[in-house]
Specification:
heterodimer; A: 482 residues; mainly beta; 17 strands; B: 152 residues; alpha/beta; 5 strands; 39% helix
Chain lengths: 482, 152
């Protein structure tokens, strides 16, 4: 007999949701309390961004060159319904902060974003914490805190502070944002400066807490990541959907930034590890299909859990020389997801190597140019002369052999390794131009040439799962800040 | 036609050279801001001098207090050649980079925006009455209520 979960249509408000609302109310009351208002002024800042994304397949331009007047756009949806052009690309932030005394600051930021299925423009607490500065070498933050991750993790939602529309997705993939953007907990941080002439200075951060986000909202990027995984076992319908009841017991991390004695050179190392329980609900149609072929286990629960362990590590370098900035980051993602529904719903994992190199140059107060090359791959599936051959690694023995069961799911087709492989890597060649129209308003245009489809989600492309090996992305965005 | 040549008193040439040399030495001596920008603090601030590294930390919000325990309150100009030159020299950033740096701090919750002023007169007036305040002006600007903090 199939066990189904109760209250599936109207799940109770999650514990994380109650905590989120309660924390927000406490911080707002603290900020706006008479004591606060009499002690210090409350500073208010904000921003609003609106963007546009459009993708094309290489086939579109080939058809135009061949003389077709209205060819299909080809390619795939990326981060949203981008094949038809998407305005679902907006952010709004509003923050309040005040000093309780010389050592204690309280602040919070409300944030809403719209990015296709990732965000429904509902205001949430982006960050909100108390910051106690005891010493320059040792200070504390308590509350919801932006997660130090690489050079730009704490600022990833701030369009106005970067030259490009999209951060290099190789390292700052929007579909993993909710695991990397903020945490609830405690942070110890400080600046260590001794013998600056010879050693420079160090900014460190250690943090412990939990992440509110892995699947707790159906619009979270983590939910999209898992819902996309639901297609991996075959084509056709999605076999499960992430639930709002997921939670993350704890996470721990640290970062160290070295402002070196070489003027303009910064090095950074960040690492985060966390556990999560991602709850998914098996689709009724999938269960009916299993039942029809007599493969439905008696004790299979309709709601199963992925016990997940995830680790992100990124090493970074940024060099600034007047108006020229060079940045490069290299990261490794590891994830183990143990399914309580195995073997019907198998275990899965995540192993990715990601890096980018970016350069930007400000021509004048109005115009800044930038470009980057980003790359990501699953090193187990994609062999590259550099660095694999350089490190003496041999190509995987079954590089050209179709995976087990491929012929059964693709009757009559010829296995095309290049086509299969392209879903295990993605290169991103990008160029952007930024206009600072005044001190408070910017406008950007950006183009990408993509090779590979590792970041293309079948969840966003249910009718065209394969995509095209080469495809294009155009992005534009405008931001106002005060 | 009269004699238009200027009479040179014996001994004035070497004196003028010496005065010029001393002036040059003073300009290049450690503790005097080069290029015309000067750091100013309130008269009550007991700090006598500032290292370039310490000043950079102050400009980037990483230094929190003076030695007397007063909180450091940073005052900056919004624009202008004094601001551009000072920020480039001591924060090691262009004006745009400096603005973006502080926006990162504010919108991530890591700091509060420095007090900003449209001109040196207003900046100086703020520094003069604010305990712990520090700012910068052009050396040609008349000082009122503040003292110069040499940077070495």
């Amino acid at each position: 007999m199939l066990h189904t979960s109760l209250n599936s249509r109207h799940p109770p408000r999650s514990r994380d949701g109650r905590l989120r609302t309660g924390g927000l109310l406490i911080l707002l009351l603290l900020l706006l309390s008479p004591a606060t208002v009499y002690c210090r002024d409350v500073e208010i800042h904000g921003f609003i961004s609106q963007g546009y994304l459009k993708t094309f397949g290489a086939s579109y331009f080939d058809a135009l060159k061949a003389g077709e007047s209205s060819p299909p756009v080809g390619g795939s949806n990326f981060l949203g319904p981008t094949k038809r052009g998407s305005w679902e690309f907006a952010e709004v932030g509003l923050n309040f902060s005040t000093s309780i005394d010389d050592d204690l600051i309280v602040g919070l930021q409300l944030f809403a974003r719209d990015l296709g299925d990732l965000g429904s423009f509902e205001f949430e607490l982006d960050w909100g914490f108390m910051d106690y500065s005891w010493l320059e070498e040792l200070s504390l933050r308590l509350g919801r805190i932006k997660m130090p991750y690489g050079l730009y993790g704490e600022y990833r939602d701030l369009d106005m502070v970067r030259p490009s529309v999209l951060l290099p997705q190789a390292v700052y993939f929007e579909s993993l944002r909710d695991l990397q953007v903020a945490f609830d907990g405690l942070q110890i941080y400080g600046n260590l400066s001794f013998a600056e002439e010879t050693l420079g200075s160090f900014d460190y951060s250690l943090f412990l807490g939990s992440v509110i986000g892995p699947g707790t909202r159906s619009k979270s990027s983590t939910a999209l990541f898992f819902n996309n995984r639901a297609f991996n076992t075959g084509e056709g319908n999605q076999i499960f959907e992430a639930q709002d009841t997921s939670h993350n017991p704890y996470m721990v991390g640290g970062s160290l930034q070295w402002s070196t004695p070489i003027d303009g050179l910064i090095l950074n190392l960040s690492s985060v590890y966390y556990l999560a329980m991602i709850r998914v609900r098996l689709a009724d149609e999938f269960l009916r299909q299993l039942d029809q072929i007599g493969q439905l286990p008696e004790d299979l629960q309709q709601e199963i859990t992925y016990h997940s362990q995830v680790a992100f590590t990124v090493g970074s370098l940024e060099y600034t020389l007047n108006d020229f900035v060079l940045a490069t980051e290299y990261s490794r993602y590891y994830g183990l997801f143990r399914s309580t529904g195995a073997p019907i719903i198998p275990h899965t994992d995540l192993y990715q190597e990601r890096y980018y190199v970016q350069a930007s140059y400000r021509l004048n107060p109005l115009i800044q140019l930038s470009g980057y090359y980003g790359y990501q791959r699953d090193p187990r599936d994609v062999y590259r002369p550099f660095p694999d051959q350089l490190l003496g690694k041999e190509p995987p023995p079954d590089l050209e052999t179709p995976p087990l069961g491929w012929e059964d799911t693709h009757p009559g087709e010829t296995y095309d390794y290049a086509k299969e492989k392209m879903s295990h890597y993605q290169s991103d060649y990008s160029a952007a131009i930024r206009f600072d129209l005044n001190d408070f308003w910017i406008l950007k245009f950006e183009g990408h040439l993509m090779h590979g489809t590792e970041q293309i989600y079948q969840k966003l492309n249910p009718n065209h799962p394969d995509g095209e090996e080469w495809w294009y992305l155009f992005a534009a965005k405008s931001t106002m800040v005060f | 036609m009269g004699n238009t040549k200027k009479r040179i008193t014996p001994g004035t040439g070497p004196k003028r050279c010496l005065r010029g040399f001393v002036l040059l030495l003073l300009l290049w001596a450690p503790g005097v801001a080069l290029g015309g920008e000067q750091v100013v603090v309130t008269n009550a601030n007991p700090t006598q001098k500032l290292s370039r590294h310490r000043l950079k930390k102050i400009l980037l919000g990483k230094a929190k207090k003076w030695s007397d325990g007063n909180k450091i309150v940073l005052a900056v100009l919004t624009r202008g050649p004094t601001h551009d030159a000072f920020i480039k020299k001591f924060a090691r950033k262009t004006p745009k980079q400096f603005t973006n740096y502080w926006r990162k701090m504010v919108f991530s919750g890591k700091g509060k925006m420095p007090k900003s002023f449209a001109n040196e007169k207003k900046l100086m007036a703020f520094v003069a009455i604010t305990p712990g305040a520090i700012g910068y002006i052009d050396s040609a600007t008349p000082k009122r209520g503040v003292k110069i903090l040499p940077v070495k």
